[in-house]
Specification:
- By secondary structure, the chain is mainly beta.
- It has a single domain, classed as Immunoglobulin-like (Sandwich), CATH 2.60.40.2340.
- The chain is built from one helix and seven strands; from the N terminus they run αβββββββ.
- The chain has a five-stranded mixed beta sheet, with no helix packed on it.
- Strand 2 and strand 3 form a beta hairpin.
């Protein structure tokens, strides 16, 4: 009886599949918007994201396109219309596959000559 139990245990454990570790990557890699999609007017520095626009630009309905780490999610999602007017700071939370979170703060600034 004991040899049968040992044999059964060996075969059961050999048949299990190894688990793959979930990613802890939760970064915003690229951030752009519908107004200046071909320029790099948004700069990511750590967890701060700053966008530069000419004075008078309507910042009340910017639609950001956000590229994040593989298998991560971001909220608010990429493509959601956001209000960056009047120096508002918009908070983005990136959640990794394993649940690790990182919070980014995005803000648009108006300048006379922003290079955009």
């Amino acid at each position: 009886m004991i040899p049968a139990l040992i044999c059964g245990t060996l075969f059961t454990s050999c048949g299990s599949t190894p688990t793959t570790a979930k990613s802890s990557e939760c970064n915003i890699i690229f951030f752009t918007d519908s107004l200046n999609s071909l320029t790099d007017n948004w700069i990511i520095a750590g967890t701060n994201i700053i966008g530069y626009y000419l004075i008078g630009t309507d910042l009340s309905s910017i639609v950001p396109t956000i590229i994040i780490s593989e298998n991560a999610t971001v909220y608010p999602p990429s493509g959601a219309k956001m209000d960056f007017s009047n120096d508002k700071v918009v908070t983005y939370t990136v959640t990794a596959e394993d649940g690790t979170m990182k919070v980014y703060k995005a803000q648009a600034q108006e300048e006379e000559d922003c290079g955009c």
